Structures are given as C-alpha cells and as structure tokens.
C-alpha cells in the first residue's frame, strides 16, 4: 500500500477563504464572531454566530449555476477549487474515473428545508417547485463537487455530524490505499441555519458572546459555517509531480460511545485516539500537537481533557493542545476537515495556532491549551480529534513527510 499525503488545502471560513487568508488569521488569533445576520434572532436568548460574510459563489462555481446549488455545496465547490489550485492539479490531465470525492456534513442543505417550511407555514407550498429536490438532499454536496469538475470516481457523503470531516478523510485514505483511486478530494461542508442555531440554543449550548474552550468561564459554543477540502494522493504520484507535500495521513481511529445523544463519557474518545495511534503504528510519546474538538461547552471540554489523559498519561501535560473553534466557531460537519487542514499547515510550518479568549485555568482542564498566542513548535505528528452527537468519535493522525 502506498503512503497517502496531503498536497493541497482549500477552505471557506469566517476568518478567511483560502490558505493565504486562513492561515495568517489563525496564527494571529482573529475572530469574526458577531451578531447573526442571516436570520432574525430577536426571539432567542443568544444572538452571536460565526458566519461567512460577503461570500460570492460566482468566484468559484464556474460550470454549474451557482444559484441552483445550496450554500453548503457552494462552500464545498469553492474549497475544492482552492485545494486543486493549491495542489497544482491540471484537471484535464486526470482520468476522471480515478478521482473521487468524500465529504462530511451534519445538516446537508438545511436552508432548503427552512424555505420549504416557510412556504408550508404561509400555505404557499406550490411555490416550492422542483428545485427543492435538486438542492436539498445531502448527497448532493459531493455530487455537485464532482459535477463542477467532471470527476466520475467514488463519490460519498458521510453525515456523522460534527466528526464527519474526519470520517470523510479516513474514507478517502482507505480508498487511496486500496488503489481504487489516483486522487481524492476529502473534507466537509455545512452552512449556517436557523435549524442548527435553534437546536443548540434550546440545549443551552450556545455562548452569549464568545467561545472560550477549556477556560474556567466557558459558557458554550458559537455556531459557525464553512468548508474545507484536502487533496489526497499517493506519495509516489506526488513525488512524480514534484509538488509540495503538506503532511502524510498516517492513520485514524473511529469509535461510538453508545452512551448518550449529546454527551460522551470520555471512554469512546480515548478509544478513538488509541486506535488512531495503533493504526498509524506510532507511540503516544511521538505526538507533538493535538488539535482538540474543544467546543467550549463545560461538559465536552472536561471529558476531552479526561480522554487525553487516559491515552497519554503523564505526558498529556506536555503536549500542546489548541482549539481553533475559539476563532471560527463550530462549523459542524466542516469542523474537523478545517482542523485537519490546520494540522497539515501546522505540520508543514512547525507553528501551532492558539486557543483564544483564554482568561483563567479550570481545575478540570489543566493541560497546555496554547492560550491566546500562536507558538513556534516542531510538529512531527499532529492528532486531530472530533466528537459528535450520537457518540461518533474520530481521531486522525498527520505526520511530517520527510522521506
């Protein structure tokens, strides 16, 4: 089996679109969290979100009609185009049947459901039209990416909620290692919606102002939106093309708690991390950075800290851990894909993004969370953690590609 590497990254986030905007913003600790603009929140007790503002789909959706695909598909296509450009891919030189797309999502295209519901409430269902079925199903996110670029290989959407990006990358990794494709686009995409916002708000999980992962004063997560796509290909093909390699995807671990719909017990998260280490053939003391799920909710951050300690023991306190959700909010199914891109960049540049809004340590969260300022640090191995409703856990290992 050939080794699998990342040769391109593309992302759409509230703090920047594309690597050139995203990475400096991340290292600078920038945040665009602010009042929600896409719908009226006056009846909610919380009002802030991390929306992608001033996004122009016409810049990126060039073959399809950009307004005949949903917002999550627009994000996915934009991230894929940026990733392909970043990887120096000449699309017309590819065998389209050997290029696949693997995408994760939480909600698919929820804005389409909202439009349907608005028409239903207004007794104007006759206005829904056939465009609904062409825009709503979540499988269309990957299908639209393939249609935009003419790819005809394996095509799948994995809806494992907030761990979906890691699941999608793991699937693409296996496809490449089995020889069923020459190149895979893998990542996740989700758009901001009333459905998601209302759900988390009713759970009391949304912070009133900012996201403060692992901080004593944390009050919850901030809903966000966005997408990230990674270009994955066999190392031999990347070398033959003579392109830059960000990192090697060296393993992953997946588990399900089967414990509680919204709260894990830490055991499943620890099992996913341990499986990732075993799958990658590495020891716990080799990990040099952990990209945390780090939502900023009191329970999640405490349990994630417990899980890290279970896996890494005394060394847990010496591993830099950060949550970029403190800057760009929780982007649902896109979250771990964006975080995987950040891990690839951290591995290449030996820089770790910070956990911003950190003001006071919590006795339950007593590890090194890289508070407020980015850090220069040799990142030989990065672990990317993601945990989702239903107890879905996914950990991914990225390794510096030096040989």
Supply Rg.
20 Å
Task: Outline the low-pLDDT stretches.
Answer: none
The strand count comes to: 15
Q: Looking at the structure, what is the overall shape?
A: globular
Strand content: 15-25%
Instruction: Name the assembly state.
Output: single chain
Cα-to-Cα separation, first versus last residue: 16 Å
Structural class: alpha/beta
Mean pLDDT: 94
Helical content, roughly?
Answer: 25-40%
The main sheet comes to: 11 strands, mixed
Q: How many helix segments? A: 12
| H/E series | EEHEEHEHHHEHEHEHEHEHEHHEEEE
Element layout with pairings:
Blueprint lengths: L3 E10 L2 E2 L1 H10 L5 E2 L12 E2 L21 H16 L12 E6 L5 H12 L9 H5 L4 H10 L5 E4 L5 H14 L5 E8 L3 H9 L23 E9 H7 L5 E10 L10 H14 L8 E3 L6 H15 L8 E2 L2 H4 L6 H15 L1 E2 L22 E2 L4 E8 L3 E8 L4
Parallel strand pairs: 5-6, 5-7, 10-11, 10-14
Antiparallel strand pairs: 1-2, 1-8, 1-9, 3-4, 7-8, 9-15, 12-13, 14-15
Helix pairs in contact: 2-5, 6-12, 9-10
Account of the 3D structure:
It is a single chain. Strand 14 and strand 15 form a beta hairpin. The chain is built from twelve helices and 15 strands. Helix 2 packs across helix 5 (140-149), helix 6 packs across helix 12 and helix 9 packs across helix 10 (298-312). It is globular, with a radius of gyration of 20 Å. The strands form three sheets. Strands 1, 2, 5, 6, 7, 8, 9, 10, 11, 14 and 15 form an eleven-stranded mixed sheet that branches. By secondary structure, the chain is an alpha/beta fold. The longest helix is centred in the N-terminal third of the chain and has 16 residues, at 71-86.
């Amino acid at each position: 089996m050939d080794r699998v590497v990342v040769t391109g990254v593309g992302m759409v986030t509230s703090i920047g679109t594309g690597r050139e905007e995203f990475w400096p913003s991340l290292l600078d600790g920038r945040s665009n969290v602010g009042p929600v603009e896409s719908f009226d929140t006056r009846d909610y007790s919380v009002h802030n979100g991390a929306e992608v503002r001033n996004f122009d789909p016409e810049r990126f959706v060039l073959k399809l009609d950009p307004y005949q695909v949903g917002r999550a598909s627009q994000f996915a296509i934009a991230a894929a185009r940026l990733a392909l450009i970043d990887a120096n891919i000449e699309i017309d030189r590819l065998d389209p049947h050997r290029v696949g797309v693997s995408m994760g999502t939480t909600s698919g295209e929820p804005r389409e459901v909202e439009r349907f519901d608005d028409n239903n409430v207004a007794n104007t269902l006759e206005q829904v039209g056939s465009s609904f079925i062409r825009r709503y199903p979540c499988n269309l996110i990957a299908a639209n990416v393939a249609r935009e670029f003419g790819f005809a290989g394996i095509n799948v959407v994995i809806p494992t909620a907030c761990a979906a990006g890691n699941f999608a990358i793991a699937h693409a990794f296996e496809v490449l290692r089995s020889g069923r494709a020459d190149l895979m686009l893998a990542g996740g995409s989700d758009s901001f919606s009333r459905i998601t916002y209302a759900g988390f708000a009713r759970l009391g999980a949304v912070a009133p102002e900012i996201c403060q992962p692992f901080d004593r004063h944390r009050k919850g997560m901030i809903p966000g939106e966005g997408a990230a796509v990674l270009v994955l290909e066999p190392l031999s093909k990347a070398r033959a093309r003579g392109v830059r390699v960000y990192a090697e995807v060296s393993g992953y671990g997946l588990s399900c708690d089967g414990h509680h719909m919204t709260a894990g017990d830490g055991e499943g998260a620890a099992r996913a991390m341990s499986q990732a280490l075993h799958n990658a053939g590495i020891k716990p003391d080799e990990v040099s950075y952990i990209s945390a799920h780090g939502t900023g909710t009191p329970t999640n951050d405490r349990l994630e800290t417990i899980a890290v300690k279970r896996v890494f023991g005394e060394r847990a306190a010496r591993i830099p851990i950060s949550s970029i959700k403190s800057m760009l909010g929780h982007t649902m199914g896109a979250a771990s894909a964006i975080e995987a891109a950040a891990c690839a960049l951290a591995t290449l540049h030996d820089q770790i993004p910070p956990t911003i809004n950190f003001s006071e340590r919590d006795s339950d969260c007593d590890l090194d969370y890289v508070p407020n300022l980015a850090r220069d640090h040799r990142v030989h191995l990065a672990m990317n953690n993601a945990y989702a409703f239903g107890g879905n856990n996914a950990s991914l290992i990225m390794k510096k590609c030096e040989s």
